[in-house]
Design brief:
Elements (H helix, E strand, L loop, with lengths): L1 H43 L3 H37 L2 H7 L4 H43 L11 E4 L2 E9 L4 E9 L5 E15 L3 E15 L6 E14 L15 H10 L4 H34 L6 H28 L10 H18 L2
Antiparallel strand pairs: 1-2, 2-3, 3-4, 4-5, 5-6
Helix pairs in contact: 1-2, 1-4, 2-4, 2-6, 2-7, 4-6, 5-6, 6-7, 6-8, 7-8
Amino acid sequence: MRIGIFSRYIAKTLITFFLSVVSILTLVIFMNYFIRVVNMAMAYGTGLGWIISSLLNILPTILSLSAPMAFQIAVLLTLTSMSEQGELIALRAAGFSFREIIRPLMICAVGLSVILLLVGNWGAPRSYRQFLDLRNEAYNKITKVTLEPKMFIDLGEWDLYLEEIDEKTEEARQIHLINKADDKALSTKVNASRGKIILTDTAIGLQLQDGQMQRIDAKDPTAIIAANFDNYTMSIALTKAGQRRQRVSEQTTTKLLRRIRSESLPDETLNEFRTEISVRNVLALSPILMLLVSCPLGFSLGKRSNKGWGMLFSIVIIFSFYLLMTLGLSIGKKYAALSYISPCLPYFMGAVVAKYLWKKRLNI
């Protein structure tokens, strides 16, 4: 019964700190993406729905980054808070062992690692791919078109000039179109005395009346093709056709493993795929490692400790973890034999440090 009551108490304390810290870290990272997405939306004329979809799709990636750091900070804040209030001393005096005290923390760490394994290997890559697809969709949109008289309007392959336009009826006068992307012609122009302009999100339609099309051949400038028309309808797409190359970070672990086994890939690409898989799992399992390193520090701080020490130790541990992981990532991309193992460098070093701290500070 005492273990059950205590487990609920310390787990509640840990979760409270964790939710607070992860919210702050997520918000900080999220604001960076928020500013970029909003700026892109304003530049390319996308709607509110595009902004919301982009921000929702980037959230799993942000959480997979912020959750391990938040858990590390929450563990030491929990332990320093209990040390500061004398709760750890009271528990030890009541006969609780260090293993009993750490048990609810370990359960939380394992639970979080399972969630991060699912999110990091499958959820985040899929959401990130959707985020990049939406961004690519915005990039391929030519621009936000505003029909204004006596101005050249960029429509991608065409420039449009309107002498007059009635915004209510969409009727325009003295319409001039110049093709900028006709490589086989020195000049391609369409002129009309009047017409109707129909603007949508993906295209602009022109119903031209009483005009002329003129084209000058690039090979023979003396060859001029001209044709008069009474009515002519044309459509200009406001999106660019094109496909983007998929990044490693947007492919699920299952897909990466399938490509490693079934495709003949260059060594550099294989190393990149393997290290990406390894890094995802290293980040997902990091709460367990950080817990084992943090507990001896938290247990040995004593009653005079405060949350400032917990934050300081957390920053040192997080910085060391990412520094070692980055070093291992670089080694793995360079040497094929170490591509899976080297990103686990924080675990090798962390195991040594944790064993030393448990033995040196707690005599276990």
